[in-house]
Amino acid sequence: MAAIGLGFHLQLSGHTHGGQFWPWNLFVRLQPPFTAGLPRLHDLWVYTSRGTGELAAGHRQL
């Protein structure tokens, strides 16, 4: 990862939804370790969010 080579110790990544939609929920788990949470890769912590959720179509909770 480029961030390691540049000396960063924390990477904040976009969200994956945790594979909430079928059939993607079957494939998200095949891409560890950066699907959700705060895993560590050498000296780099990588935080990946699952997103904020949605109550209804077109309405996003912030």
Keywords:
2 helices; elongated; about 60 residues; alpha+beta
Structural description of this entry:
This protein has 62 residues and is α+β, with helices and mostly antiparallel strands. It is built from two helices and five strands; from the N terminus they run αβαββββ. A hairpin with a 2-residue loop joins strand 4 and strand 5. The chain is elongated. The mean pLDDT is 77.
Helix content: 10-25%
Element pattern in H and E: HEHEEEE
Largest sheet properties? 3 strands, mixed
- The whole-number mean of residue pLDDT values reads 77
Low-confidence stretches: none
Number of strands: 5
What does the overall shape look like?
Answer: elongated
Report the β-strand fraction as a percent range. Answer: 25-35%
What Rg do the Cα atoms give?
14 Å
Which class best fits the helix and strand makeup?
alpha+beta
Query: Strand order, biggest sheet?
Result: 1-3-2
List the total number of helices: 2
Kindly report how far apart the N and C termini lie: 30 Å
Task: Draw up the topology in text.
Layout: H1 2-5, E1 10-13, H2 24-27, E2 40-41, E3 44-48, E4 54-56, E5 59-60
Parallel strand pairs: 1-3
Antiparallel strand pairs: 2-3, 4-5
What is this entry, summarized?
The protein has about 60 residues and is α+β, with helices and mostly antiparallel strands. The protein is built from two helices and five strands; from the N terminus they run αβαββββ. Helices cover about 15% and strands about 25% of the residues.
